[in-house]
Design goal:
The complex is a heterodimer. Chain A is of the alpha+beta class. Chain A has 3 domains: about 220 residues, no CATH class; about 170 residues, no CATH class; about 45 residues, no CATH class. The longest helix of chain A has 30 residues. Chain A starts with a helix and ends with a helix. By secondary structure, chain B is of the alpha+beta class. Chain B has 6 domains: about 110 residues, Nucleotidyltransferase, domain 5 (2-Layer Sandwich); about 130 residues, Rossmann fold (3-Layer(aba) Sandwich), CATH 3.40.50; about 140 residues, ATPase, nucleotide binding domain (Nucleotidyltransferase, domain 5, 2-Layer Sandwich), CATH 3.30.420.40; about 80 residues, no CATH class; about 110 residues, Dna Ligase, domain 1 (2-Layer Sandwich); about 60 residues, no CATH class. Chain B has 16 helices and 35 strands. Chain B is globular, with a radius of gyration of 26 Å. Classes of the chains: A alpha+beta, B alpha+beta.
Chain lengths: ~575, ~700
C-alpha cells in the first residue's frame, strides 16, 4: 500500500483545515470589531506562523495592505521577544508603522500558542482602530508625531494578565477610548479562537508539532509560484505613472524583472517623500506590489512563507515608496493603492492582453465631521459627528471586459449604506449616481465613477477630510484607449475645493463629489457599435461622446446609423 | 383537531426541485411517496400528474384530503435564470443606481476578471421621482405626484409587467411609497406593484431595493402559477386548502404567497430543516447539525433546542463559485443555513499546488457523473463513492440509473490519479476526504458566525448523498451520533407536513437606549401583531397562536447587529435596562465577553406568529434487539488501512426496530445508501430511523 500518497492527501486536508482555522480567526475579529474599516471593509488580517516566524496560512480579507506586511511583522516581534523568552499566556502588540502595516491606526497582535506546555505556533492578527489620537485620519500631519500614539513592540498580556497600564495609556490618548480598547480585546480574542481550532486539528490528526505540515505547505507553494513565474516571458520592463500628490505631483517609477523563478520590482526613480501624511513605508509598498503581481501571476496560490520571497520589492531610501521615520504616513494608501497600476504598466509590456488599464485605484472615502474641534462654533448647537464612508470611482477596463463602475481595486472595501450614514449623523445625501461619460473610451470601456451630493440637515457647517487622487492626472487607457474622467470636488455654488486636506463646507452649502472613471482598453473605434448604442441607451455614455470618442452615430430611435458610423470611423 | 388545517385526514406535500418533483401523501395507513421529473415549461403539470398517481396508488379519494402543502424552487430558478417579469424600478431622485452599485465591493479579491451580478432591472427601466424622507421619517421634500403620474404614462408605453418602488427611509415613513403605489396601480391596471416598505421594511437601501425588485420580478409568474395549480387541484376535486412553504420554515396562504412571493425562495431546504427539527425532538437531541446533501449542493443547519435559527437575509443566485457577494441579497426571514457547492455531482480536479479540489462546479444530471455512462468525463464525488465500493451499481436511485464503475475509475485515473501519480483507490478516497473536509469547514465557520460549537451535537443526515458521507463528517466535527430518517430521499416534502402556519414581520425603528421610548415600541409590536394575525388567521382561523419577538441590537458604533430574544409584554419606562441586559447576555454568548460602558442601540424589531406545535411522541422503546443477517457482502476500500475490507450489505426495508448492525456495513434503500464505517455501529430505532453511534473506544477513519 502506498502510504506516501495517502500522507499527501492527509497533508492536503490539514492544509485546508489550517486555512479554515485562520478564516475562523478572521471572522471572529470582523464580527467583534468597532472600526468601520475593520467590520465593513474587512480591513483586518489573521494568520498562523511557525516558531521561526514563517507564515503558514493567512485569511483572505478585504485588505491587500496586510499581505506580506503582517508576515514580516511576526519576525520583528521575535527579534524583540525570542521564542525562549515567550511564555504561555503572553500576548504582544505594536502599531509601529514600519514594523507593522504602515500607519498608527493598525494594531498588530501576536500570541504564542502552547499545547501541553510546548509552544506549537504563533497566531497574529491586525486591525484598523477607530482613532489613535493626533490629527485624525487626515493627511494634514507633517510628522508621525502629529498622527497619534506610537506603541512599540511590547507585551499586551503577561501570563494571562492584560497590561492594564498600557490599556490605560491608550485610552487616555484616543478619541473613542471604549471602542479602541474593544478592538484591542477583539484582536487578542481572535488569536485565542485560532489556537482552539488549531488544537482540535492537532488532536484529530495526532500531531505534536507543525513542522512537517509547515514544510509541506511552504514547499508546495514555492514550487507552484516558481513554476508560474517560469512560464512568463523572462526580462525586464520599466513603467512610470504620475499622480496628484499633496503639495506636488508624484512620479511612481518601477522596473520589473522576471528571471529565475523570481519577480523583482524596484522603484528607483520614484519621487521623494512628501511633507504630508501620504508617505508609504516599505512594508506597505511591498504588500501592494506583491498583491498586484499575484493577481496576474498566481491568483490561486495561498499566501504563506513559500510565496513571500518569490516577489522581491526594493526602493531607494527617502522615496515616497520607502519613507523613513518620522515621515507622516497616515494616508499611505494614497501611494499603496496606486502601485498595482504601476506593476501592471510593466507587466503589460511582457504580457499584452493580461492586465487591466489604470483605474481610480485610490479609494474616494468620504470622511466628514462637524462640531467641537472640527468646525467653527455656530449660534445653534451643532451636532458633533464623524463619518467615514467607503466609496470608489471606476476601475480600469480589462482586455476582454469593460471596467467595473464604482468598484474598488486593489482595495477590497465595501460601502456604508446611505440610510445608515444618515441615521447616525445630520448628513443628507441627495444624489449618489453613476457619472455619465466618466469611463475611458476604448474597445473595452473603463468603469464609470459616481457623483455624490451632500448637505447637512442643520444650519451649520461641516468639514471634509479630503484625500483624493486622479483629480489632476487621470487613469490612463491602454493600447489607444482614452483616459477616465478626472475627479472633481466642489461646492454647489461652484467653488472648487482642494483634493487633499481638511476643508469646511459652509452652512446651507452643498458638497459635490465627482469620482473619476477608469481608463479604457484598446481602440474605441473597435468597440462594437451595438455596445456603444447600448451604453447610450443606458445613459452611461452620451450620444455626443458616442460620436466624438467612439465614432458611432445613432439614429433617432437610438439604433446605430451604420452609414454615418462607417464614415466617422474611417 | 377541530378546524385545524394542520393535522387530521389525509395530507399531501409536494416539493418542486430543480430535477425532481417529490410527492408525499400522509394518510390513515401511513405514508407514500414518489418522484417525478420536474416539468419546467409548466411546473403544475408534474405536480398534478403526481397527485393523480399517488391518489390512484393509495386509493385515497380527493375529497378525503384535508390539506395540500407546497414548496417550490420556481421563484429561485426565475431569479437564477433571469426569467422573470419585465420589471421597472422607481426610486428617490438621485438613487436609481443604488441597485447596480450595490456595496461597491469585489467579492473575489484576486480575480481581475470578476464581474458583478447584473441587477434584475436594467438602467433604462430605472426611474426616479422628486421626494425625500429624512432618517427620522420627517419629510424633507414632498412627493411630486405629477411626476409619478407622468412616469406612469411612460411605464405604460414600455410594456412593463411589474414595478418595484423603493424610496429612501420608507421603512420608517412609507407615506410617499404608498401614495406613489396608489397612483401607479390606478394608472397601470394589471401590472404588479411591489412597495419596498411592504416587502422589506428594513434599513439599508440596497438590500431593500434588491428585495423589492426580486419580489416584483417573480410576482406575475408566481401569481399565474399558483392560480393554475389551484384550478388544477379543484378540477380533481381537491377542494381542501392549499398552503405554501416559506423560506422561514412556516407555511402561508396562497393570497399571502401571491402578494409577497419572494418569501417562497429556498422553501425546499427549509422543509428539510423542519424535518431535522422534528427528528431532533423525537430523539430528544437538543443540539443537532442538519446535513442535507443532494446532487449539487450540501445544506448545513445548526438547530439548538428544537428551534432552527431564523436569519433575516439570504443571498440568491450566486453566480460565481457560490461566493458570498456574487448573488442578489434578499432581506426575508429565512432558516439560517449554509449552502455549499458540494454534492454527488460536484467535479474534482487537481490545482497548481497538486491539491485535489472538489466543486462547486457540478456535472448536474446531464451528462452527470462519469459513472452514469451518459458521456460525462469529469470525475465527481459519486464517481469516487462508486470506486470505493460504497454504492451498489445496480441499485443507484432505485435502479433508475445503472452505474458504470469502470467509467468512474477511468475518469478518476485521467484527472486525478495520473496527475498526482497515485493509485485510483487513493485518488477516489482523496476526493471523498476533500469534499468531507470542505463540508466540515463550512459547518465550523457557520457555527462560529453564530456563536455556536460542535460539542455534544448529533447529526441528522438526509438527501441522496448525505448518508454516504455522514460518518466521516461526524468524525471531523467530533460528533458521536447520527440519525438517518425514514424517507431520507424526500426529506424536504416530509418536512412540509410538519411545518406550522406562521408569518414573520419586521420593522426598522432606530432607538438609542438612552432615548428609550416604550410607547413607540408597544405601538410597533401591536401593529405588527395585527398585521401578522390577519395573515395567519387566513390559514388558521381558530387555533391558539404563539408570538415570539426579537430585537436586532448592537453597541453604539458597531456595524453588525445581533439577534436578541425579547419577551412578549407591554414595555414601560425603565425597561431599557432590561433590554441592555438581554443584549449583554446574547452578546456574551456569541463573543464570550461584553464591553462595559458602551451604549446600546436597537435597529430592528421582529415578530413571529405561528400556530402551536403539536407535541411529538418520542421514539418508542424497542422491545428486543437482534442482529440481522446481511443479504450479501461487498468490498469497501478503507482509506485508513489502505486496504479492501469486507462489509455486510443490508436492505433497510427488511429490518425491524431493534436491528443491530456493526460497522463496517452498508444499508441500502431506493433513494440512498447509508455507509456505516469502521468504528460506528448502527441500530434501527422504534421509529425505523437508522441511528449510528461511535462504537466505544472506536475511532473511525
Amino acid at each position: 500500500m502506498n502510504d506516501a500518497n495517502m500522507n499527501q492527501i492527509r497533508y492536503q486536508v490539514m492544509w485546508d483545515r489550517l486555512l479554515s482555522v485562520v478564516e475562523e480567526q478572521a471572522q471572529t475579529l470582523m464580527r467583534t470589531a468597532f472600526s468601520t474599516s475593520s467590520r465593513e471593509a474587512g480591513d483586518i488580517s489573521a494568520g498562523v506562523f511557525d516558531l521561526k516566524g514563517q507564515m503558514l496560512a493567512q485569511a483572505v480579507t478585504g485588505t491587500p495592505g496586510h499581505i506580506n506586511s503582517m508576515a514580516r511583522a511576526v519576525v520583528h516581534f521575535l527579534d524583540v521577544f525570542p521564542v525562549d523568552v515567550m511564555k504561555d499566556g503572553d500576548v504582544y502588540i505594536t502599531n509601529d508603522p514600519w514594523k507593522g502595516t504602515g500607519h498608527l491606526h493598525d494594531f498588530t497582535v501576536v500570541t504564542p500558542t502552547y499545547r501541553n506546555g510546548v509552544m506549537v505556533a504563533l497566531f497574529a492578527c491586525t486591525s484598523h482602530v477607530v482613532d489613535i489620537g493626533g490629527v485624525g485620519m487626515s493627511p494634514d500631519g507633517r510628522q508621525i508625531y502629529h498622527e497619534g500614539l506610537f506603541v512599540p513592540i511590547m507585551p499586551l498580556a503577561t501570563g494571562g494578565e492584560m497590561n492594564a497600564w498600557l490599556l490605560n495609556l491608550i485610552r487616555s490618548n484616543v478619541r473613542e477610548p471604549v471602542q479602541v480598547e474593544g478592538d484591542i480585546y477583539a484582536l487578542a480574542a481572535c488569536n485565542d479562537t485560532g489556537a482552539r481550532r488549531l488544537f482540535d486539528m492537532m488532536n484529530e490528526y495526532e500531531l505534536d508539532d507543525l513542522d512537517a505540515l509547515g514544510d509541506h505547505i511552504i514547499e508546495q507553494s514555492r514550487t507552484a509560484i516558481t513554476a508560474a513565474i517560469n512560464e512568463l516571458p523572462q526580462g525586464s520592463w520599466q513603467h512610470a505613472m504620475r499622480i496628484d500628490g499633496f503639495e506636488n505631483p508624484i512620479d511612481l517609477v518601477a522596473r520589473l524583472t522576471i528571471s529565475n523563478g523570481i519577480i523583482q520590482v524596484d522603484y528607483t526613480g520614484s519621487s521623494g517623500t512628501s511633507d504630508f501624511g501620504i508617505n508609504c513605508p516599505m512594508c506597505y509598498t511591498e504588500a501592494y506590489t506583491a498583491f498586484g503581481v499575484k493577481c496576474v501571476v498566481a491568483p490561486d496560490i495561498p499566501n504563506n512563507a513559500g510565496t513571500l520571497d518569490a516577489i522581491v520589492v526594493s526602493a531607494p531610501d527617502n522615496t515616497i515608496v520607502n519613507a523613513p521615520h518620522p515621515c507622516a504616513v497616515v494616508a499611505r494608501s494614497t501611494i499603496g493603492h496606486m502601485l498595482p497600476d504601476v506593476v501592471f504598466g510593466c507587466l503589460h509590456q511582457a504580457l499584452p492582453n493580461r492586465v487591466p488599464a489604470e483605474g481610480t485605484s485610490n479609494l474616494w472615502n468620504v470622511k466628514l465631521g462637524a462640531g467641537h474641534g472640527i468646525t467653527e462654533r455656530t449660534e445653534d448647537e451643532t451636532t458633533t459627528f464623524m463619518l467615514m464612508s467607503f466609496h470608489s470611482g471606476g476601475a480600469g477596463a480589462r482586455p476582454e471586459l469593460d471596467g467595473l463602475s464604482a468598484t474598488p481595486y486593489p482595495s477590497g472595501v465595501r460601502n456604508v449604506p446611505v440610510e445608515i450614514s444618515e441615521a447616525i449623523t445630520p448628513i443628507v445625501v441627495w444624489r449618489k449616481e453613476l457619472r455619465m461619460d466618466s469611463g475611458g473610451a476604448g474597445a473595452q470601456r473603463g468603469g464609470l465613477g459616481q457623483i455624490m451630493e451632500i448637505t447637512s440637515r442643520e444650519d451649520a457647517p461641516f468639514g471634509i477630510f479630503a484625500s483624493f487622487e486622479r483629480v489632476l492626472y487621470p487613469a490612463r487607457g491602454r493600447d489607444g484607449a482614452g483616459s477616465g474622467a478626472t475627479g472633481e470636488l466642489r461646492l454647489g455654488s461652484g467653488k472648487e475645493l482642494r483634493n487633499k486636506g481638511f476643508q469646511t463646507i459652509p452652512a446651507r452649502e452643498r458638497l459635490i463629489i465627482e469620482m473619476p472613471g477608469g481608463g479604457g482598453f484598446g481602440d474605441p473605434f473597435a468597440r462594437e457599435p451595438d455596445d456603444v448604442a447600448r451604453d447610450v441607451r443606458l445613459g452611461l455614455v452620451s450620444a455626443e461622446a458616442a460620436a466624438r470618442d467612439y465614432g458611432v452615430v445613432l439614429g433617432d430611435g437610438g439604433e446605430v446609423d451604420q452609414v454615418e458610423t462607417a464614415k466617422h470611423r474611417n | 383537531m377541530g378546524d385545524s388545517l394542520i393535522g387530521g385526514g389525509a395530507r399531501l406535500a409536494v416539493d418542486i426541485g430543480g430535477t425532481f418533483t417529490d410527492v408525499v401523501l400522509e394518510h390513515a395507513n401511513g405514508q407514500d411517496s414518489l418522484k417525478l421529473l420536474t416539468t419546467p415549461d409548466a411546473p403544475e403539470r408534474a405536480v398534478l400528474e403526481g397527485v393523480d398517481e399517488i391518489l390512484n396508488r393509495t386509493g385515497v379519494s380527493a375529497t378525503d384530503m384535508t390539506l395540500v402543502i407546497h414548496g417550490t424552487t420556481l421563484a429561485t430558478n426565475a431569479l437564477i435564470e433571469r426569467k422573470g417579469a419585465r420589471t421597472a424600478l422607481v426610486t428617490t431622485d438621485g438613487f436609481r443606481d443604488s441597485i447596480e452599485m450595490a456595496y461597491e465591493h469585489r467579492f473575489e479579491q484576486y480575480d481581475l476578471y470578476m464581474e458583478r451580478p447584473q441587477p434584475l432591472v436594467e438602467r433604462d427601466r430605472r426611474f426616479s421621482v422628486p421626494e425625500r424622507m429624512a432618517a427620522d421619517g420627517t419629510v424633507l421634500m414632498d412627493l411630486d405626484e405629477r411626476a409619478v403620474s407622468a412616469l406612469a404614462v411612460e411605464l405604460a408605453g414600455l410594456d412593463v409587467e411589474a414595478v418595484a418602488v423603493c424610496f429612501l427611509h420608507s421603512y420608517v415613513n412609507p407615506d410617499h411609497e404608498h401614495r406613489a403605489g396608489a397612483i401607479l396601480r390606478e394608472a397601470l391596471p394589471g401590472v404588479s406593484i411591489s412597495l419596498s416598505a411592504d416587502v422589506c421594511p428594513e434599513i439599508r437601501e440596497y438590500d431593500r431595493m434588491s428585495t423589492a425588485c426580486a419580489n416584483a420580478y417573480v410576482q406575475p409568474m408566481m401569481a399565474g402559477y399558483l392560480n393554475q395549480l389551484e384550478d388544477g387541484l379543484r378540477d380533481r376535486g381537491l377542494v381542501c386548502p392549499l398552503l405554501l412553504m416559506m423560506s422561514s420554515g412556516g407555511v402561508t396562504t396562497v393570497a399571502t404567497a401571491t402578494a409577497i412571493p419572494i418569501r417562497l425562495v429556498e422553501s425546499g431546504p427549509a422543509g428539510g430543516a423542519i424535518l431535522a427539527r422534528d427528528i431532533a425532538r423525537e430523539n430528544d437531541l437538543d443540539k443537532i447539525l442538519s446535513f442535507d446533501m443532494g446532487g449539487t449542493t450540501a445544506k448545513i443547519t445548526l438547530i439548538d433546542d428544537f428551534q432552527p435559527h431564523i436569519a433575516r437575509s439570504f443571498e440568491v443566485a450566486r453566480m460565481h463559485r457560490f461566493l458570498k457577494g456574487s448573488g442578489l441579497p434578499l432581506r426575508i426571514p429565512v432558516i439560517d443555513m449554509v449552502e455549499i457547492g458540494a454534492g454527488g455531482g460536484s467535479i474534482a480536479d487537481v490545482d497548481a499546488m497538486r491539491r485535489i479540489r472538489v466543486g462547486p462546479e457540478s456535472a448536474g444530471s446531464v451528462p452527470g457523473p462519469a459513472c452514469y455512462g451518459n458521456g460525462g468525463t469529469a470525475p465527481t464525488v459519486t464517481d469516487g463513492d462508486a470506486v470505493l465500493g460504497r454504492i451498489d451499481p445496480a441499485r443507484f436511485a432505485g435502479g433508475k440509473v445503472t452505474l458504470e464503475p469502470k467509467e468512474a475509475a477511468a475518469a478518476i485515473v485521467r484527472h486525478i490519479g495520473e496527475v498526482l501519480e497515485t493509485e485510483t483507490n487513493i485518488a477516489a478516497a482523496g476526493i471523498s476526504e476533500i469534499v468531507d473536509e470542505h463540508m466540515a469547514n463550512a459547518a465550523r465557520v457557520h457555527a462560529i458566525e453564530n456563536g455556536k460549537d460542535m460539542v455534544g451535537r448529533s447529526l441528522v443526515a438526509f438527501g441522496g448523498a448525505a448518508p454516504l458521507h455522514a460518518t466521516r463528517l461526524a468524525d471531523k466535527l467530533g460528533i458521536k451520533r447520527i440519525v438517518v430518517p425514514q424517507g431520507a430521499g424526500v426529506g424536504s416534502a416530509i418536512g412540509f407536513l410538519r411545518a406550522q402556519i406562521s408569518y414573520e414581520m419586521v420593522r426598522t425603528r432606530y432607538m438609542d437606549l438612552r432615548e428609550f421610548d416604550p410607547r413607540a415600541v408597544n405601538e410597533i409590536y401591536s401593529s405588527m401583531r395585527r398585521e401578522a394575525e390577519a395573515v395567519v388567521r387566513l390559514g388558521a382561523p381558530d387555533e391558539p397562536l404563539v408570538e415570539t419577538r426579537t430585537a436586532f441590537m448592537r453597541y453604539r458604533g458597531q456595524g453588525h447587529e445581533i439577534m436578541v430574544s425579547i419577551p412578549v409584554k407591554e414595555f414601560g419606562t425603565g425597561d431599557d435596562a432590561d433590554l441592555a441586559d438581554w443584549f449583554g447576555t446574547a452578546y456574551e454568548k456569541l463573543f464570550s465577553r461584553t464591553i462595559p460602558n458602551l451604549g446600546v442601540e436597537v435597529l430592528t424589531w421582529t415578530l413571529s406568529l405561528a400556530t402551536d406545535r403539536p407535541s411529538l411522541a418520542t421514539v418508542p422503546q424497542v422491545e428486543s434487539s437482534y442482529q440481522p443477517e446481511p443479504m450479501g457482502q461487498r468490498r469497501l476500500f478503507d482509506p485508513a488501512s489502505g486496504a479492501w475490507i469486507q462489509a455486510g450489505v443490508y436492505a433497510r426495508g427488511d429490518m425491524r426496530p431493534g436491528a443491530m448492525i456493526p460497522g463496517p456495513a452498508v444499508i441500502v434503500e431506493d433513494e440512498t445508501t447509508t455507509l456505516v464505517t469502521n468504528g460506528f455501529d448502527a441500530t434501527i430505532n422504534g421509529l425505523g430511523q437508522i441511528v449510528m453511534t461511535r462504537a466505544a473506544g472506536g475511532v473511525s477513519s
